[in-house]
Amino acid sequence: MLKCESMNLFYGEVQALWDVNLEVKEGEIVALLGANAAGKSTTINAISGLEKLSSGKILFEGTEIQKKDPHEIVEMGIVQVPEGRKLFSYMTIEENLELGAYSKRARANFKQNLETVFELFPILKERRKQLAGSMSGGQQQMCAVARGLMGNPKFLMIDELSLGLAPLVVKQLFEVLTQISKRGITILLVEQNVKQSLAIANSAFVLKNGRLALSGKASEVANDPTLHQAYLGK
Amino acid sequence: MRKVKSVLALVLVIMLVFLSGCGSGGSQSASGGSQSASGGGETLKIGAIYPFTGGAALLGDESFRGAELAVKLRNQKGGVAGGKKIELSKADSPDANAAQSQANRLISQENIQLIIGSYSSALSMAASEVAERNGVVYWELGAISDPITDRGYKYVFRTNPTSSQFAQSEIGFIKEVVPAKLGKNLTDLKIALVHEDSLYGTTVAGFIEKYAKEEKLNVVTNQAYNMNSVDLSSVILNLKKAQPDVVIAVSYLNDAILLTRQSKELGFDVPVFIGSGGGHTMTDFQKALGADANGILNADFPQYEINKSFTPGLDEFVKLYQDTYGTAPRSGHSVTNFMGMNVLLNIIDQVGSLDPDKIQAAARSYKLEPGKSETGWGVEFNDKGQNKLGKAYVTQWTDGKLVTVWPKEAAVQEPKLPLLKWSERK
Amino acid sequence: MILQINSARKDFGGVTAVNNVSFDVKQQEIVGIIGPNGAGKTTLFNLISGALPLSAGKIIFKGEDITNQKPDLICKKGVGRTFQEVKPFGNISVLENVQTGAYNRLSRRKEAREFAEHVLEKVRLIHRKDVTAKSLTIADKKRLEVARALATKPELLLLDEVMAGLNTSEIQEIIPLIRSLAEEGITLIVIEHIMEVIIQLSHRVIVIQHGEKIAEGTPTEVINNKRVIEAYLGEEITIA
Amino acid sequence: MGEIIQVLISGILVGGIYALISMGLNLILGVVRIINFAHGEFLMLAMYLSFFLYSVWGLDPYVSALLVVLILFVFGLFIQRIIIQPILNTSATVKIFVTLGLSIALQNFALMLWRADFRSVHTAYQTAVINVGTVAVSIPRLIAFIVAIIVALGMYLFLNKTLVGKAIRAVAMEKRAAALMGINVKRIYLLAFAIGSAIVGLAGALLIPIYYVFPTVGTLFVLISFVVVVLGGMGSMLGAFLGGIIIGLVEAIAGVVIAPGLKEAVYFIIFILVLLFRPSGLFSLGKGSEEVGLK
Amino acid sequence: MRGLLSKKSIFLFILLIAAFALPNFLKNKFYMNIVIMVIFYAALSGSWNILAGYAGQLSLGHSIFFGLGAYTSTLLLVKMGVSPWLGIIAALIMSMAVGALIGYPAFRLKGPFFTLATLAFSEVIRYIASFWKELTNGAMGINIPFKPGLATMMFRTKEPYYFIALGMLLLIILITFFIDRSKMGSYFIAIRENEDAAEVLGIPITRYKMYSMLISSGLAALTGVFYAQYILFIEPEAVFNINFSSQIALMSIIGGMGTIFGPIVGAVLLVPLNEIMRSAFSSLNGLNFFIYGIVLIIVVSWMPNGILPTITNQVKKRGLKVSTDRKGAGKIDTAN
C-alpha cells in the first residue's frame, strides 16, 4: 500500500533521514519505533507532505506522492493524527470533527463516519458542544483520533498516541486502534510505548538517528536486541 | 534559491545606484521647467523649491504653476534684460530636510544664484536659511509664516502677505463690516476661533487672537484640532456651546470640508463664518460642498472674481492658465506666485543679471502702487524684506465662485450677511 | 544539601503539570530524573531555573530560598541548565555562543574566550568553534547547549535530555564527560529518556509520572520498582 | 444632556467606520499573521475606485460598492500571492519593512496617476441628517455604521457557521494540523487576505461620501486600525467591531472633555496601556496573545 | 587572523585619513551637504542599530530620541542662551530618561508588538510636542537665530559641520565597536537571538535591554542636537515623524543590522539614492518614491540580512575556496 524508497531529508544543513525504506501492507498495523529525535515524526510528516524529501520516493498505491502538498495527500486517503494532538482548541468537538472531514473525499461519508466515531468514542458524542481545549488529555487524544478518522482514511498515521496519558486511557485507546484496524484501515503507529505497540502491531520498523535500524514482524522485532539498543541504548 | 535571490537583490541595488547615477547626469537638462527657454541667447536659471510630493503637493504644484506661467509669458515676450531667457529648475521638497538639501544642491550643483519658493513655511524657513548663508537671493512667493522675514536676512524677500497681515485683514473686515450687518456693537460680538494645530493654523490663529485682543474684541473660544482628524464633531459641539456670532477658521482642505459638513449635520448655524485661506479658498472645497459653501467668507490671496480695474493683467493670467493647463486656476496661490514672480522678473530686468547683491539692492528700492498688479497689491519692501503692501482680501462663496467683497477698492459685491441657515442654503 | 525542593507545584490553567514534588540533592551527586514524555520533568526544570513561577512550594539552593527568583539571578547563584529543545544563538559562532555563557563569571573578553575554548575542548566541539550555531547538527547543538551552560561555571547543572538523538558511541563519549563534571565538583540533575544511561550515570533516580514523584532510590531499586516499570514502559512489560 | 448624547452618537458612528477598516486588518493579522502596514493604502485605492466610478460613470458610491469590493478582493489575492506569500516564513523585520515598502509604493503610485488633489463625491445625501430631538444623526455615517454591524455579524457567521470559515479559523489556530485535515493552507491564506482586502474595500466605498480621498489618506486610518485591532483582540471580528466603537467614543469624548488637539494622543495612550496590561485585547474571544507570538 | 586584523586596521586607518582630508578636496557645497547628510544618517541609524540590530528590539519610534535631543538643546539655547555643547548633556539626560520611561513598560512586549508600541509612543510625543505650545512653540516650530560661532555650534561654512558630524559618527562607531567586542554586546546579541536561553546564562534581560535603550537613545539625542544646529529650524512634524523613524531603521536594515558598518553602508547607498532619484524623476511627482518602495520590497524580501552580511558571506565562501587566510576580508572590502 505504502512504500518509501531511500528517503533523505534535510532540515537546513542537518540531515534528519538517511536512506530510509519503509513498506506498509494494506490492512496491517505497523509500528514505527525509535528513541526521541530518531526521525519518526519526520518520516510521517514526509509522508503527509509537511516536509519535502531531498531525494527518494514515496509511493502510495503505486502513485508517487513525495512532491504533493498535504491537502492532496489527504485527498488520497492518507491521514495523520499529529503528535501533541494539535486540536483546534477554541472550537467545539463537533467543529473539530467537521474539519477532520474537510477533504472532498471525507465529506461524502461525513454522516457515516460521524456515527462510527461516536460509536468508538461515546464520550465525544456526549461532549460534542464543548470546547476541545477544555477537555482532559485523554479525551483530547480521543478527539484527535476521531478527527483523523473523520478524514475517511485508507491509511491512518498516529504520532505518539500514548503521550502523557494515564495507562488506563492508553489501554482504551489501543483497544480502539485494533477496532479501527478491523474496519479495514491500515495503521502506521509512531510510539514510544514499545511493548504495547508491538503487542497490537503486525510488523515494525525501528529508526535510529535517522536511519532504519531494524524492521520485521512485530514478534521478531520485539525480541531483537537491536530494538533495545535503539531504544534504550544498550 | 534564497542565495540566488539575495545575490539578485544585490545586483539590483548596484544597478539602481548605477542607473540613478546616469539619471542624475541627465537630470540637469530635463529638470528645466520650461523647455521653451532654450531658444538662443543667454539663459538665466532660477531654482524653484516647492513640495511636489507628499501631503502639501497639491497647493505646492498650484503655486509653482503661477511662477511657471510668469516665466513662460516673459520668455514669450522676449525675456529679460535684452533677450535673456529665464529657466526654472524644479526641486521637489516634500519636507524641510529635503528643502535644505535641495537648496544646497541648486546653489552648489547648478550654480544657481536665485531661488524662489515655496508655498510651505517650513520649507521656506529651511531653504531661505541655506540661501542666506550662501549669499543667494531667496524670493518667497507664497509662504505666509511671519518669521521667514522677521529674521532680518539680507537676501530674503517676500512679495505675498504674511500671517499677521492676514489676521489684520480679517479683524479689519470684522470691524468695518460685521457690526452693521448684524446690528450689534463691535465689542458685543462673540468671536470663536477654530484652527488646525500645525504651523499654518497655529500661526494665523495666534495673530488673530492677538489683534482681536488689541481691538478689545470678545474671543469666546479657541479650538485647535489635528488636521488629520476623521471626525470634528467634538470641535463643533464646543463651538455650539459658545454660541458665537463670528467663527474664524484656519483650516487646510480636508478639515475645512469636514468642518462644514459636520456643522451642517450637527445643525451648527453661525451668522458669520470666515475662513483664512487654506482649504476654504479652494475650488475643491466648493466642489465637495456644493450649495453648502454659499455665503462662507474667506480671507486670502486675491481670487478671480475681483474688481479687474484694480488688478490689471488678471484676465490675461487666467486665460494663460486655462490654455496651459486646461483648467481654471484651482486657487489664488497661482496668481499670487505669478504676481510675485513678475515683480522679481522686473527687478532682474532692471539689474540685467542674477547677481544677488545687485538684486537685493534693486529690490529694496523697488516700488509699485497698489492697484497696478495682477493681485492689486502694491510693492514696497521693509528693511527685513517683507512687502508692506501685501494684503488679504475677503471673498464670499457665491454660486461656486469666490467673489471679492472686501476691501472696497477690490470688491465687486456687497457681503451678504448674516449667513443663511443650513436648511435655507441653496 | 545543595538543593531542596519542597512540595513544588505548578498549574497551567486547570492542568497540574507538577504536583507536590519534593526531593533533595546532595553536593556532587548525579541525580537522574525519568518518566514518560509529558510527565512534567521539563516543567520541574523550568521551576528550578526560574523560567516559570511556582504555584506552590519552595526551592532552596545552598540554604537560600530561590523560589520564583528570576532565571538570570538563579544562574548567577550557580544553577546552569540546558534546554531539551535546543536554543542556540543561531546567527553567531559556536565560540561566541559559549563565550556569552562564560561572561557569567568572567567579564574580560579574553578570559571569557579562553574559558569558552576550554569548555569547547571538553565537550569536543572545538573543531566547530567558528561556524554559526545554526549550521550545527542536532548532536552538536546538544553539545553546544551543554558547553554554554558549563561556561557559566555552575555548581548545579540541570541537563535536559542532552543525549536524545545521539548515537551509542556518542553517548558513550558523553557519559565520562558528565562523570568528570561531577568529580570536578558540579552537582548534576539529569533528565534522560534512555534508561540505560540513567542507570550508568546516576547515584540516585527520581521517577515522575503525571507530575507526581512515584519513586525514588538507587538505579537498581528504581528499575525494579513495579510502578516504575508500568509507568515508564507501559503495562504489559516483561523487559528482557 | 442633548450634548452628551450627541457626543456619544458621533463617537459611536465614527467608531463604526474605524471598525469596518479594522476588521479586514484583523482578519489578515489573525490568519496570515502579518501586520499589513499597507492596509491604509488598500483603503485609499478603494476610495479612488469608488470616486472614479462616481465621477466617470456616475455610479453612486453605494451602488458601486459591490464592484469595489470585488476589485479589492482580486487585488488582495494578487498582493498576497506576489508579495506576502514569499515572506511568510521570515523575520518580523522583513514583514514590517516589506509591507511598509508596499505602503510607500502604493501611495506614490496614486500620486503619480492622480496627483495630490483632494477628491470627493458630491451626493444629495452626503450631509443629510436624521434629527432625534436635539440630536443629529448623519445618514451616511449611520449607513456606514449599520454596514459595519452587518459585516461584523456576517463575518462572525461566516467564520463560525460555514465550513470554509471554520477552516480559516482552524488555520489561524493550528496551521499544521489544518494542513493534515486536507485544508489547503496557502489557499486559506489567499482567501483570508482577499476577504480582508474586500472588507477594507467596502470601508472605502462607504467612506467616500463622508470623507475625501488623496494619496496619503491611508496613513490617517492605518494607525487607528492598529489601535482598534490590538484593543479588540487579534483575530476577533467582534473584538474589532467593539474596539472600533470604543476608539470612536474615546476620541469624541476626549475631544470635548480634554481638547480636540489631543484626542488622538488619548487613544494612543490607551493603546499603549492595553498592549501592556491586556495584550490579548479587551474582547479577545479565545485566541490570545500566545497565538500571535506575543507571550 | 592577526595579520588580517592589522590589514583591516590599516585599511580603516586609510579610510579615516581620507575622511579627514575630504573637505580639502570637496569644495562643492551640494556634495558636501550630501556627505554631511550621509554621515548624519549613518550616525543616527548607527544609534538605532544598537537597540535594534544588536539587542533585537525593533523600534519604529527612534525619532523620539532624535527629536528630544534636538528640542532639548534648542530650547536651552533659544530660551536660556545655553551653548549647544552644554545642551548635549541635557539632551542626553532628557532622551535617556524618556528612553527609560518608554523601555520600562515596552520591553515586556515582544516582536511586532514592541514595534507597534514604539510607534504609538512616537505619536503620543508628537501630539504632546504640537500641543504644548508654551514650551515647544507647538507646530510653529522653533527657529534658531543664526549666530555663527564655535560656542553656538553654528558656522557659515560646511566644514565645521562636517567635522562635528564625523566626530559623532566616529564616536558611535567606536561605541558600537566596543559593544560588539564586549560582554555587553554578547549579551545584547544573546537577547536578540533567544531570550529564554539568554536568561539561563545569567543575563538580566530587562536590564540589558535597558542598557541598549539608554545607549541608543543617548546617541540619537546627540545627532538631534547636531541636526538642530545644522538646519536651524525644528518642528514636531519633522522631528517626531514615523516615516523618519522608518528611514532610520531602513538604512541599517539595508546595510546590515547588528554589524558595525551596516548603517554606514545603508546611509552611503540610500541618502544619495534619495537625492538623485528626487532630481532624476522630478518630471513625474511620486515616481521616485514609487521606485523606492518597490526596491525596498524586493531588497528586504530577497536579502533580509542586508547588504553587508550578504557580501561578506559571498566573499567568505569564495575566499575559503581560494585560500583560507582570506577569511573575513569581506568586511573590510565593503566598508567603504
- The end-to-end distance of chain C, rounded to whole angstroms, is 37 Å
Structural class computed from helices and strand pairing of chain E: mainly alpha
Strand content of chain E: under 5%
Assembly category? heteropentamer
- What's the structural domain tally of chain E? 1
How many DSSP helices of chain E?
16
Strand content of chain C: 15-25%
Question: What is the mean predicted local confidence, pLDDT of chain E?
Answer: 85
Helix coverage percent of residues of chain C? 25-40%
Largest sheet properties of chain C: 6 strands, mixed
| CATH architecture heading of chain E | Orthogonal Bundle
In angstroms, what separates the terminal alpha carbons of chain E? 21 Å
Helix content of chain E: over 70%
| CATH C-level label of chain E | Mainly Alpha
What is the overall number of helices of chain C?
Answer: 9
Principal-axes shape call of chain C: globular
What does this structure look like?
Chain A is of the alpha/beta class and 234 residues long. Chain A contains eleven helices and ten strands. In chain A, a hairpin with a 2-residue loop joins strand 4 and strand 5. Chain A starts with a strand and ends with a helix. Chain B is of the alpha/beta class and 426 residues long. In chain B, helix 2 packs across helix 11, helix 9 packs parallel to helix 10 and helix 12 crosses helix 13. The longest helix of chain B is centred in the first third of the chain and has 29 residues. About 4% of the residues of chain B have low confidence. Chain D has 295 residues and is mainly α. Chain D has a single domain, classed as Orthogonal Bundle (ABC transporter involved in vitamin B12 uptake, BtuC), CATH 1.10.3470. The C terminus of chain D is likely disordered. In chain D, strands 1-2 form a two-stranded antiparallel ribbon. Chain E has one domain: Orthogonal Bundle (ABC transporter involved in vitamin B12 uptake, BtuC). Chains in contact: A-C, A-D, B-D, B-E, C-E, D-E. The interface between C and E is medium-sized, with 31 and 20 residues.
